[in-house]
Amino acid sequence: MEIAFRSALLAWLQADPALSGNLNAVVEEAPSRTALPWLALTASASTDWSTKTEAGRDIRVALELNYRGDDPLSEAALIAAIERRVESLPADQSAAGFRIASLMFLKGRAEQRGEARRALVLEYRVRVMAA
Questions:
Q1: Architecture of domain 2-130
Q2: Among 70, 79, 93, 123, which one is least packed by beta carbons within 10 Å?
Q3: Residue-range domain boundaries for the chain
């Protein structure tokens, strides 16, 4: 279910016109030769979250936004758009073989990487049940 969730989340993010208009890439893992800004689903991990009658997973995912700017608030609107899009992922993902029971923001981390490069990592916990 973890791989199916990753795929569904990436497709959902890639389908957003506001994000695709402001990002050079929305990909799985960091792109090697893409101009900033880009968004990547860089990590995930899952544990069992099954019941007696249904298979389930507790999945943690990390999205990393890389961008350029001297002002830490330079991409605040883009970051808000990413958060809104992730949190609006439809619960019914039966075509992918699961349904979302809960999705919540866990934490964010921002860092400056030199040459006015910035990175923001957003971590989410998603609990899914087999469809």
A1: 2-Layer Sandwich (3.30)
A2: 70
A3: 2-130
Cβ(39)–Cβ(65) under 8 Å? yes
Instruction: Encode burial over 102-113: b for 16+ CB neighbours within 10 A, e otherwise.
Output: ebeeeeeeeeee
pLDDT in tens, 15-43: 999 999 999 999 999 888 899 999 999 99
Pairing of strands 98-112, 26-28: unpaired
State the burial class of residue 10 (Cβ atoms within 10 Å of its Cβ: 0-12, 13-18, 19+). Answer: middle
pTM over 0.85: yes
In DSSP terms, 106 is beta-bridged to: none
Max distance between CA atoms of the chain, in angstroms, equals: 53
